[in-house]
Every structure is written in structure tokens, then in C-alpha cells.
Design brief:
- This protein is of the alpha+beta class.
- It has a single domain, classed as Gcn5-related N-acetyltransferase (GNAT) (Aminopeptidase, 3-Layer(aba) Sandwich), CATH 3.40.630.
- Helices cover 45% and strands 24% of the residues.
- It has a seven-stranded mixed sheet, with helices on both faces.
- α4 (45-55) runs antiparallel to α6 and α5 (84-94) crosses α7 (112-127).
- The longest helix has 16 residues, at 112-127.
- The chain binds coenzyme A (COA).
- Coenzyme A (COA) is lined by residues 1, 3, 35-36, 76, 140-143, 148-154, 176, 180, 182-183, 185-186, 189.
- Coenzyme A is lined by residues 1, 3, 35-36, 76, 140-143, 148-154, 176, 180, 182-183, 185-186, 189.
Length: 215
């Protein structure tokens, strides 16, 4: 993969890292679909993803950051949860009326998504069985294709790390498709340590963890 030049300081100054807000949700859903083609969450479609990204920033178990251009348009975002199960529960309760129409229409089009949705709700138990440590989960980090390799992902992770520190969260976990070599390289460069592989949605997934050093 050709690596692009990092952003010159003058351009970096025009990028603002801001907390993810519900009004970024549609754009976050669009970036998610561009960044993760062929994955389960993308298969649920823009309607369901928009609900996810509307709920996450206002949930007590969610937060995120967006890299905005000078017009306030998101070029990249990161979404984090401290309770994956609780987040899905909130989507199903707080936003049931928004969630049901797009979800049911996708279930009718592709019934295999029903089983995978159940696996998603069970995922926290599968991935973090018997773990008691206080860890946050990086649910998604996505940069618009033409902005990749220019430092936005690193800027977002720096904001995530600082926010974890302020929230006294000592560990940041991420689960990535084992075949996503670009993202794996990104995480490894950003100090995440590989922990193990697991199967999810019939695909091998790699689990990584990064320790958040106290200030
Ligand atoms: C992984 C990702 C979020 C990194 O964001 P970014 O803004 O490109 O990150 P940075 O510019 O800070 O870091 C660049 C590093 O990311 C990695 N990388 C992964 N995909 C890349 C791509 N398409 N272009 C350039 N670099 C990429 C490389 O390791 C690169 O460093 P290197 O070229 O020196 O090896 C971004 O490439 C992306 O959106 N990928 C698709 C979505 C995805 O897989 N997300 C992670 C799973 S949730």
C-alpha cells in the first residue's frame, strides 16, 4: 500500500478534533460503510448505523471523536464504548422506533443477518469472557479513503487515549478482521499488542489491547 505524505503542519492546523456528536451520525455511518465493505455492521445498512452513531455519543457507555475539515465536515471518526452490551441495549430501547424499520427491512432482505445480530449481542461475552479489568472497546475508527495515511487516525487515537486517561480507563481493546492487514499495521504502530484470535460471524478476528499510561 502506498503511504501518503503526512499532513503538513499548516493543513493539520485546519483539522479540528472534536467530540463525536449525534449530528455527525449520518456521515459516520457513511464513513463506516466506505471503510468496512463486506462486514456485518455494514450489511445492516446506513439506517441502522446512523442509529448506532446517534446513540453512542449521548450514551453513558459511549464516546467518540471526529476529525473535521474547516467547514466542520467529518473526514474521519473514532467510536468507543465502555459497555458493548449496554450500548446495543440502549439502541434497542432509546431508539427502538428509529431502529426497527431499517433493521427489519434488512432482516427480510437477508435473514442470515438475524443470527449474526444475536452473535453481536452476545459478542461482549464471547470476546471478554471472565475478564474483570476495566477496558474500553474501540468499536470503529474510519478515515475517508482519500485522507488515509495522512495522520488523521493517529490524531484521533491521541484524543481517544487522553479521554480514556481522564475517565480513568486503563485499557483500550479493539477487535479487527484478521485479514484487515492495513488496520492491523495501524494498530501495531499505535502501540496495540496482539492478544489472540477468535471466530466471529464465521470470520477470524484478531483482538488487540493497548495500555493507557497514567499521566
Ligand atoms: C486504519 C485507518 C483508520 C487508519 O487511519 P489513517 O488516518 O489512515 O491513519 P494514519 O494516517 O494516522 O496512519 C497511517 C498508517 O495506517 C495504516 N494504514 C491502514 N490502511 C491504510 C491506508 N488505506 N492508507 C494508508 N495507511 C493505512 C498504515 O500502517 C499507515 O502507516 P504506514 O503506511 O507508515 O505503514 C484507516 O486507514 C481506515 O479508515 N481504514 C479502513 C477502515 C478500517 O479498516 N478501520 C479499522 C477497523 S475498525
Amino acid at each position: 500500500m502506498a503511504s501518503r505524505a503526512p499532513l503538513p503542519a499548516s493543513v493539520q492546523d485546519q483539522i479540528q478534533i472534536a467530540p463525536l456528536a449525534p449530528f455527525h451520525a449520518e456521515e459516520a455511518a457513511r464513513l463506516h460503510i466506505l471503510g468496512q465493505p463486506g462486514t456485518f455492521l455494514t450489511a445492516l445498512g446506513p439506517g441502522v448505523l446512523t442509529v448506532l452513531y446517534r446513540v453512542l455519543p449521548v450514551s453513558p457507555v459511549g464516546f467518540g471523536f471526529a476529525a473535521l475539515d474547516e467547514k466542520g465536515h467529518p473526514l474521519a471518526f473514532a467510536a468507543i464504548t465502555t459497555g458493548t452490551g449496554r450500548l446495543f441495549f440502549e439502541m434497542g430501547t432509546r431508539r427502538l422506533l428509529d431502529l426497527l424499520p431499517p433493521l427489519l427491512s434488512r432482516f427480510v432482505q437477508d435473514p442470515r443477518l438475524i443470527g449474526r445480530s444475536i452473535q453481536t449481542v452476545l459478542y461482549p461475552f464471547l470476546a471478554h469472557e471472565r475478564e474483570t479489568e476495566r477496558a474500553a472497546e474501540l468499536l470503529a475508527i474510519m478515515t475517508a479513503p482519500k485522507w488515509r495515511g495522512r495522520g488523521l487516525g493517529a490524531m484521533l487515537l491521541a484524543a481517544v487515549e487522553e479521554s480514556c486517561r481522564q475517565r480513568q480507563i486503563p485499557l483500550l481493546d479493539v477487535t479487527v478482521d484478521a485479514n484487515n492487514s492495513g488496520a492491523r499495521r495501524f494498530y501495531e504502530r499505535q502501540g496495540f499488542a496482539f492478544r489472540r484470535e477468535m471466530m466471529l460471524y464465521a470470520r477470524p478476528m484478531a483482538l488487540y489491547r493497548r495500555e493507557i499510561a497514567p499521566s
